[in-house]
Specification:
disordered C terminus, Jelly Rolls, single chain, 8-stranded antiparallel sheet, 8 helices, 4-stranded antiparallel sheet, globular, alpha+beta
């Protein structure tokens, strides 16, 4: 479990960096599995149900920006995410009943991995309360040079900003019009094996990788079980409850006075695909984001 100081910092600032959660052997095993996925992608020429490819991807030089749903794609990632080490962190922040919303593994190859423009996860999946967060597990050192997570401390206590452009949800704010001082952003740097946590309403993004070193980050979105989705219709209760990874189900959503802005019309595609049409960008080299 987290210390009182860590939980206080999360409440106040909206994020944490926790070193040494994975062992060296686990980091090495994760890297080897990721390398296997990258090698598999050589036979893929367009993004599909598993791979979200960079624009310059080729069989000779495979470049992936995301492995979709890695917890479903490989048992190693599923077991790691469900481990007590991870769920104890989550329970310390949002309580003993936890539902998984989805996983992804974002990859930034050396010299050009795609940027991710400023956004809030809660804009993508608003719930009846904001006990919603994301866990990031680093398989490489995450640094400013290779495009580590950037956050605006305290932004999780503010509004959910407009992520639309010309009436379409694009999964990014307009940095020129946002009522947030982006100069206050700080990097969340980690060693390999470290873990980041950020609140669902935290404004965050990441720059392109300008180094020769890769940045591979496993991400898991989670919510308290009593946080119910606001625009997803639960038609199969058993399937919905199957996503509970700790604790038990409830039919009593907890309603909290949190700001909400719906991502409608309902978008399709990954965040990279949604942000591709953004007219105004904050990160240099974000041509593929």
């Amino acid at each position: 479990m987290l210390t009182p100081t860590q939980t206080y910092r999360y409440r106040a600032e909206g994020y944490l960096a926790i070193e040494g959660v994975l062992t060296a052997d686990e980091v090495a095993a994760g890297r080897a599995i990721i390398d296997e996925f990258v090698d598999r992608s050589r036979s893929v020429s367009a993004s599909d149900a598993v791979f979200d490819l960079e624009d310059d991807h080729s069989a000779a030089a495979p470049h992936i920006r995301r492995i979709k749903s890695p917890a479903r794609a490989h048992p190693f990632f599923d077991a790691l995410l469900r481990s007590d080490r991870i769920l104890d962190i989550v329970e310390s922040l949002i309580g003993p009943d936890v539902r998984a919303l989805g996983s992804k593994l974002n990859l930034k190859s050396g010299q050009g991995g795609s940027a991710v423009e400023w956004h809030q996860d809660f804009a993508f999946h608003p719930h009846t309360n904001d006990d919603v967060l994301a866990i990031g597990i680093a398989f490489d050192p995450c640094t400013l040079a290779n495009g580590c997570l950037m956050v605006v401390p305290g932004s999780h206590t503010g509004p959910v900003l407009d992520h639309h452009q010309d009436g379409a949800f694009i999964g990014a704010i307009d940095p020129a019009r946002a009522p947030v001082d982006l100069s206050r952003a700080v990097p969340v740097e980690l060693d390999a094996g470290g873990v980041s946590v950020h609140h669902g309403r935290m404004l965050h993004g990441s720059a392109s990788n300008t180094s020769a070193q890769p940045r591979r980050l496993l991400l898991w979105d989670l919510a308290a079980v009593d946080a119910w989705p606001l625009f997803r219709t639960v038609t199969d209760l058993d399937a919905f409850n199957a996503d509970i990874v700790r604790g038990g189900p409830t039919l009593e959503p907890r309603l909290a006075p949190v700001p909400v802005r719906l991502p409608l019309p309902l978008p399709a595609g990954t965040i990279f695909e949604l942000q591709a049409g953004a007219a105004h960008r904050a990160f240099a080299g974000a041509e593929a984001s």
